């Protein structure tokens, strides 16, 4: 199903992106922001490590994913109030995904599940006073928007984990 030559390729990406993913989740919860340096770093991880991890033809075919998803994210930001940081993170994460139809469907299903799960969990946790007291300065507790980075990170991380351990 995955076009990675070996599961170790997905595992290598997973190891490289995990600290960044944790940082993105934290900043999105605390500040409701995914910073440019975070999305830049995610893209740099793929661009620099990709040729060593993936076959060159697979690597080169995945680079345009960034451009396509950046354009989609820009449009979503303009017409659907989709966060700019979310759009940039989505674009930077795109090269980590295969464009094989089965993998596109998997990515869409994962994103759908993480959107529902992360939204429900965030709303439930912010309704619990003891949880809010542990992080009283988190902006996401008081805003009506949703920290979409939770769902985007969950989708990317789970996709790579499934590829690594399939």
How would you describe the overall organization of this protein?
The chain is mainly alpha-helical and 166 residues long. The chain has one domain (7-164). Helices cover 75% and strands 0% of the residues. It has seven helices and no strands. The chain has helices at residues 7-31, 36-53, 56-79, 84-93, 101-126, 129-134, 149-164. α5 packs across α7. The longest helix has 26 residues, at 101-126. The termini are close together.
Please give the structural blueprint.
Elements: H1 7-31, H2 36-53, H3 56-79, H4 84-93, H5 101-126, H6 129-134, H7 149-164
Oligomer: single chain
Q: Report the C-alpha radius of gyration, rounded.
A: 16 Å
Q: Show unreliable segments.
A: none
Terminal-residue CA separation: 9 Å
Largest sheet: none
Spell the H/E element sequence: HHHHHHH
Q: Top keywords for this entry?
A:
7 helices, 0% strand, mainly alpha, 166 residues, 75% helix
Task: Give a brief outline of the structure.
This protein has helices at 7-31, 36-53, 56-79, 84-93, 101-126, 129-134, 149-164.
